[in-house]
Amino acid sequence: MESSGIPKKSRLLAIVVAIAALLIAVYSVIGQLSGPEVFAEGDTEIAVTAGEHFSVRLADDPADGGHWVIAEPRPDPAVLQATGGHFDADDPPPSGAGGSRYLDFTAVHPGRTDLRLLRCRRCGTPDADEGARSLNFRVTVG
C-alpha cells in the first residue's frame, strides 16, 4: 500500500478541524433558523450576549387604539438598539382583533440598560399617561 506523503498525525488533525468547522456551521444555521430568543412581559430581567437579536412579546389589541412605544428614558444605544417589530393576530382570531406585538432588539455591546415600554393611546401628549400601561425590563448584555 502506498503512502500519500502526508503524515498520519497531520491527516488526523485535518479531519478534526474539518469536523469542528462543520459543527460550528450547523450550530450557526440552526441558530438562524430558530429565530431570535423571545422574552415575555413577565421576564423583567433579560440577559443576552453582544450581537444577539431578541424580541419582547407583548399582549396587544390594535383595535382599541393603543400602541406600544419605547418610553423615556430610552435605553443606552451603546448597549441596546431597537430594530423594529411586528404584530401576530390570534389564530383563529376571537371576536376581537387581539394578538401579540413583538418588539425586536439587537444587543450591541456589553453593559446594562433599562428598557421601559409604554402602551398608550395618545403617546407624546399631556394625556399620554392616562390609562397607560408600563413595563420595565433590565437588559444585561454580556
Automatic annotation (TrEMBL):
Keyword Oxidoreductase included in the entry's annotation: no
Gene3D superfamilies cross-referenced by the UniProt entry: 2.60.40.2020
Chain segments carrying region Disordered: 80-99
Pfam families reported in the protein's UniProt record: Inhibitor_I42
Proteinase inhibitor I42 chagasin domain ranges (all copies): 48-127
Position of the signal peptide: none
Transmembrane segments: 12-30
Annotated GO MF terms: cysteine-type endopeptidase inhibitor activity
Keywords: Membrane, Protease inhibitor, Thiol protease inhibitor, Transmembrane, Transmembrane helix
UniProt name for this protein: Proteinase inhibitor I42 chagasin domain-containing protein
